[in-house]
Structures are given as structure tokens and as C-alpha cells.
Design brief:
This protein has 285 residues and is mainly alpha-helical. Helices cover 73% and strands 6% of the residues. The strands form two sheets. It has a two-stranded antiparallel ribbon with strand order 1-2. A two-stranded antiparallel ribbon has the order 3-4. The protein starts with a helix and ends with a helix.
Length: 285
């Protein structure tokens, strides 16, 4: 019971922080996810150094990833309505150059492992969080200005939360009647009926978002909800595979009752890039 209360309180505060940080202003959005990017990269580097025998430079890796997020923020926000300069990304290239070149001089026993995990963290963690800026900022041709559409990045998290809720409720209630497992090798607790329930609840959330915000058609909102639901499930499974290979239960202990930041944002690391691809695809049709 005590652990349930702790988990509930942490979950409520977590949701309030995400919603408040995104909805309040572009600045709070940037500060929040720059911090999340940095802490998640540090956690990833710590885990692979401790359990995978790597020696990733946590400081350089983390600073590089945070800079990438802020560069995306500056470029796509304009900031807001200045002239974005692609040169803002050049300093990030120094990180990509430093990580492999440094191994020439450090003489560590397994440089390939260090490169692999360092670059993996940039692709797996830093890039997806950075792509939130692509969702958040759009150029309005009528006003000639960049606008902050905070409800689009927030919708990704809303879909992920409703998907998890629907999957848990349907899985708990109906698993005895429909016991087929979704991916038993990686996550024995996930069932097909739970995933379907999560998808249906996402469709309901999509209808509400369409009602309150418009912006897209109802079918486009529903398509976004399903894309986030499917890729969020894969994101959860990918992180489960990552932890299983390392032999750990949680990626960290930063969130009491919930584990680490990777445990909380695992679904979004696949859902965010998928949402960007989906929205850019429908923009061409």
C-alpha cells in the first residue's frame, strides 16, 4: 500500500510537470526537456558503464545531447521569429568528432563499445527529445510568423498515457479470456487484448483533442493516436530488451516507485520520431 501511494504521488507530479512545462510557454518547454534530455543521457551512460562494461564519457555525452536539443529549439522556434541559422548545429559536430577521436589517446580496452554506446545514446535519447521541437513549432504562412503549438507535443504524451491506461485496464480485466501474449520473449506481461484496449482509448483521446484544438481533421488526429500507440509500445519493448540484456530491472531510481527516466520516457523515444514522420507525411497529401 505504501509503495502504491508513493507511485501514485510520483506519477501525478510527473504528469503535472510535463503538462505544465509544455503548456506554460516555449521557454518552460525548452528548459524542461533540456533538463530531461541531460538527465536521461546521464542515466543511460551510467547504466552502460556500470552493467555493460563501457567507459562512455558521461559529461561530454550529456552536454552534447543537451546542446543538440537547444540547437533544435533555437532553429525551429526561430527564436521566436528571428532568422534561424543552420550554423547553430556546427558545435554539436565537435561532440561527434571528439567521441571517437578521444579513444585514440585514452587507450581504453574496448573503444568500439564506448563509441557504440555513446553514439547510440545520441540517436536513441538526444535526437527523439530534440524532435519535440519539430512538433512544437510551425511556420504560419498567413501571419508570416513561427507559432508555438504546444498541444501537438503534449498530445504525444497524452496518447502514451491513455495507451498505457487502456492497456492496463483491458489487460487486467480480460487477460483470462484472451491470454495471447504480445511479445512474451521480452515482456511477458503485455497482451494483445491490452494493446487493443490501449489503441481504442487513444482513439477516444484523439476525438477529444480534435474537439478542443482542431488543427487536424478527426481522422488525422486518430491516425496520430494510433501511430503513437503502436510505436510507443515498440519503444517500451525496446527498453525492456535493453534492460534484459544488461540484467537490470530499472534504469535508475530518480522517480520513486517508477524507476528511472528511461523507464518513464521509453515509449516516447520511439513515438516522437514516428509522430514527426506521420505529420510530415500527411502534410504532403
Amino acid at each position: 500500500m505504501k509503495n502504491l501511494i508513493l507511485r501514485t504521488v510520483t506519477g501525478v507530479l510527473f504528469v503535472a510537470l510535463i503538462v505544465g512545462g509544455i503548456a506554460c510557454s516555449p521557454v518552460t518547454f525548452a528548459l524542461l526537456f533540456a533538463l530531461v534530455t541531460g538527465l536521461t543521457l546521464w542515466e543511460f551512460s551510467t547504466v552502460v558503464n556500470r552493467y555493460a562494461g563501457a567507459e562512455v564519457n558521461r559529461l561530454i555525452n550529456t552536454v552534447g545531447g543537451v546542446y543538440l536539443f537547444l540547437a533544435f529549439f533555437y532553429y525551429f522556434s526561430g527564436y521566436l521569429n528571428g532568422l534561424p541559422d543552420v550554423g547553430v548545429f556546427i558545435p554539436y559536430l565537435l561532440t561527434l568528432i571528439y567521441l571517437p577521436v578521444s579513444e585514440l589517446y585514452l587507450r581504453r580496452p574496448d573503444p568500439l563499445k564506448n563509441w557504440g554506446y555513446a553514439f547510440a545514446s545520441q540517436l536513441y535519447v538526444a535526437l527523439p527529445f530534440s524532435l519535440l521541437n519539430v512538433l512544437a513549432f510551425q511556420y504560419d504562412a498567413f501571419s508570416g510568423r513561427v507559432v508555438y503549438l504546444w498541444f501537438i507535443p503534449l498530445s504525444v504524451f497524452v496518447f502514451l498515457w491513455t495507451s498505457d491506461t487502456g492497456a492496463y485496464c483491458c489487460g487486467s480485466l480480460l487477460h483470462r479470456y484472451f491470454p495471447a501474449k504480445l511479445f512474451p520473449r521480452i515482456s511477458p506481461a503485455k497482451s494483445w487484448v491490452g494493446s487493443i484496449g490501449g489503441g481504442l482509448l487513444c482513439l477516444g483521446a484523439a476525438a477529444l483533442l480534435w474537439h478542443f484544438f482542431g488543427c487536424f481533421t478527426l481522422l488525422q488526429w486518430m491516425g496520430l493516436g494510433l501511430v503513437v500507440c503502436v510505436f510507443g509500445t515498440w519503444g517500451d519493448l525496446v527498453e525492456s530488451l535493453f534492460k534484459r540484456e544488461l540484467g537490470i530491472k530499472d534504469s535508475g531510481h530518480m522517480l520513486p516507485g517508477h524507476g528511472g527516466l528511461l523507464d518513464r520516457f521509453d515509449s516516447s523515444l520511439m513515438a516522437i520520431p514516428a509522430a514527426v514522420l506521420y505529420l510530415y507525411t500527411i502534410a504532403f497529401f
